[in-house]
Amino acid sequence: MVDDRKLDVLRAIVEDYVATEEPVGSKALVERHGLGVSPATVRNDMAALEDEGYIHQPHTSAGRVPTDKGYRLFVDKLATLKPMSAAERRAIATLLDGAVDLDDVVQKSVRLLSQLTRQVAIVQYPTLSRSTVRHIELVSLTPTRVMVILILSTGRVEQRLVELDAAVVDTDLAELRVAVNQASAGVQIAAAAAALGDLPDAVRPEQVDSARAIVGVLTEAMSDHRNDERVAVGGTANLARYGDFDTAVRPLLEALEEHVVLLKLLGESGTDALTVRIGHEGPYSELAATSVVATGYGPQEFHLGSLGVVGPTRMDYPGSMAAVRAVARYVSRILDEGNQ
Amino acid sequence: MVDDRKLDVLRAIVEDYVATEEPVGSKALVERHGLGVSPATVRNDMAALEDEGYIHQPHTSAGRVPTDKGYRLFVDKLATLKPMSAAERRAIATLLDGAVDLDDVVQKSVRLLSQLTRQVAIVQYPTLSRSTVRHIELVSLTPTRVMVILILSTGRVEQRLVELDAAVVDTDLAELRVAVNQASAGVQIAAAAAALGDLPDAVRPEQVDSARAIVGVLTEAMSDHRNDERVAVGGTANLARYGDFDTAVRPLLEALEEHVVLLKLLGESGTDALTVRIGHEGPYSELAATSVVATGYGPQEFHLGSLGVVGPTRMDYPGSMAAVRAVARYVSRILDEGNQ
DNA sequence: GCTGGCACTCGTTTGCTCGGAGTGCCAACT
DNA sequence: AGTTGGCACTCCGAGCAAACGAGTGCCAGC
Asked: What GO biological process, any one, is recorded here (chains A, B) (predicted)?
């Protein structure tokens, strides 16, 4: 039985608790929000809410605190995304429009997100695996040394140095350049790696060795998932505002060091929807006191990576959700533009 | 008047305090270190050390704690660098030898340094300004779109996209490629930027416009000191072991967000010497409770950047100094190798 | 079904005592 | 002159009890 007023009470409890960080009692609730009923009535509702597991009493004579289940209901049913102010929108737009390359976009997004939400922000670098090859460049540094440069559609550039057993002349290198580009330009990276694998069989005999070496590092670079695991973190200083150090801050600090953990937190689910994971719902029991608000980004439903914020379960969900969504949209747009 | 035994006492106080985090009294001192004198004698020495400002008493009936001045004396006169264990040396060597590119070297160094010292580690990316141009590549993506790739001696790769007003044919682009490389390959970046500036005057008239555009982004990329300000930070979780949150952890967390501050902490002095900055000696009064152990790195006295660790003034100086120096040496070696 | 009243609970704050670690000083010893 | 044992003194912090008060649950009345 969850009638409207009880939902109002729950919303009020969440909002007050988020604001004050202290268990909220019936009297304060009625005063701060114009509930139009007496404290006693609210107390009855609170007792019911507690029975149903939405709120919890730290000890007998204390106010109530939302449970994870309570936050969940709040997020699902009660929260309306706080619209970004015009100033905030402008800040996002001007900052991100000024980014010069991929690294810059990621760095600026992290900074932005942490400042908007006053929380720890996490931005995953666009995954290699979903992007396409834009261009491959072969640069001969010395006769036996070739620098291989792989330019991807997301703007990511990978370079590798290859030592060849025999010298290769520039015209041969030019031929190879054309060949590798024909095989892979515009193709998704996994397919490109496969196509390149067959390439050494198709070139002139005297080029086979160098082709093999070059294709080797290329496919290696393409299947190198190191970048899939790269994330940028920012706003750690916001942890300082957390109340409880040992249960909240320390485990989170440790998690932030482990990028694999962070990726799991962001949820590589591949979906672009805005997701909220509250406390124990997450995969790590040490992080039972923290929530994650995350979403995927990428042009038009094309998932390139995820970004989000991590904070205490007691956090401003509407604000965080709005900020995460807004930043994700801008990042998607920017990446799309650079890609035309 | 600083005789030998008083120095011994100071050393013992520093070592004990670093180990226990608690003010150390005369009795415990005599017991733990074989000083060969009675507590009363030590007390006299301690009184003298306190008069001279090397140690300090939190309150009348407490033990002594080293002052910044005391740590300074300890570092200058009393500390001998803890030699790295064979296992540690091996760990450094194998980890860094496995690095595939510049980013990787920096990331791994940070991780290494923070693990070795159990402290917050900071590694500055090699500055652009001191490096030389290894190669410039021009890739035509569409007839009016050229990707400019700048490869530096440190392994750093910068890319920029240029929109041209008029289409440029591949042969012209090849000519330009040769021209820009002739002007700048092997040249220090500042000089290269200057040399490139004169280039548009020297090309064929129909190329002037595209040359100007390309040279424009190149010089911009070369004089872009954004990378001079890039630093990697790791081991933040080690902050969790700090005692006092508000005076020690919070300001440091805030400082870690501000890369400019970090660079100042590392000290861009340009010297490659191992420097230790203790508490108030640093430029920020908020960081009076933290010390910095840093050094420059780069092949043979050629300063490319700095790296170091930040921790509480009460830290293991000998260990940190040894680790910082060892990592700096390895990083220098790696960068030198990649440069041949 | 809402409300005011009331007894009750229990964590927090405050004030207090008391033990002990550590000191400074002094007189005696080497 | 430097070192030592002895001793009175200081003061922090642990431990405990009492007072406080915010908040509750329940009940009778509207």
From this structure: negative regulation of DNA-templated transcription
Q: Which of chain A's residues have a Cβ under 8 Å away from the Cβ of B137? A: 137, 139, 149
For residue B2, name the pLDDT band (cuts at 50, 70, 90): low
Residue nearest to nucleotide C5 (CA to C1'): A40
| Domain at A9, CATH number | 1.10.10.10
- pLDDT of B195-216, one tens digit each? 888 888 878 888 888 889 999 9
Count of residues in chain A: 340
Give the pLDDT of residue B186. 84
CATH of the domain at B116: 3.30.450.40
Query: What token pair was written down for B168?
Result: 């440029």
Is B339's pLDDT higher than 60? no
Amino acid identity, residue A59? H
Distance from CA(A82) to C1'(C7), angstroms, rounded: 44
C-alpha–C-alpha distance, residues A64 and A59, integer Å: 9
The residues pairing with B151 across neighbouring beta strands, listed in sequence order, are: B135, B157
Q: Which of A196, A227, A258 is the last residue of a domain?
A: A227
The stretch B39-64 carries a mean pLDDT of 90
Q: Provide the token pair at B319.
A: 């260990």
pLDDT in tens, B7-18: 999 999 999 999
3 state DSSP class of A230? coil
Q: Is the CB of B298 under 7 A from strand C?
A: no
> What pLDDT does B86 receive?
93
Strand D bases contacted by the protein (CB, 7 Å): 3-6, 9-12, 21-27
Among A58-67, A141-150, A331-340, the range scoring the smallest mean pLDDT is A331-340
- What range defines the domain where residue B154 resides? 132-227
Residue A186 sits in the same domain as residue A244: no
In the block, tokens 């041209």 appear at: B164
Indicate the DSSP class of residue A64. B
- Average pLDDT (B19-34) is 88
Return the SS3 of A307.
strand
What percent of chain B lies above the pLDDT cut of 90? 35
My answer on whether B110 and B223 are in the same domain is no
Give DSSP secondary structure letters for B81-131.
Answer: PPPPPHHHHHHHHHHHHT--SHHHHHHHHHHHHHHHHTSEEEEEPPPSTT-
pLDDT of amino acid B268: 64
| A334 and A235 part of one domain | yes
B contact set with A (CB within 8 A): 100-101, 104, 134-135, 137, 139, 141, 147, 149, 151, 157, 159-161, 224, 226, 234-237, 239-240, 245, 249-250, 253-254, 256-257, 338
- Residue B195's domain is classified under what CATH number? 3.30.390
What are the tokens at A132?
A: 């396409």
